[in-house]
Amino acid sequence: MNTQTVAGMIAGARSRIQNLSVGEVASELQSGNVLLVDIREPEERTANGTIPGAVPAVRGMLEFYADPTSPYHRPEFETDRRIVLACASGGRSALAADALQQLGYNRVAHLDGGLKAWIAAGQPVETV
User: How many CB atoms lie within 10 A of CB 27?
Assistant: First the structure.
């Protein structure tokens, strides 16, 4: 059996997706042409806040929300829309961006370093 570590899975995902810095995400948010998706759990958003304007979509349901054939599909998920994913430190969002690409999302990226990097860079956070 061929096994892999989660660190290896994340590294593989990062090699296949677009990794955005805090500055790049901030710039895209200013343009207004991006859907920022916070894939953290509700208790994480409550405890640490969220990036203003981020839409919550927990990691465990993301593929179901994104798949137009799923009964859980959410209309804000469009395969041709620019989507940036964020989590706490960038691991889950890298895996999630990779998964969305497999579902046909070609304009997906993630916030490298996640909310921790966002806060460390002095960017705004709102309470939930």
Answer: 12
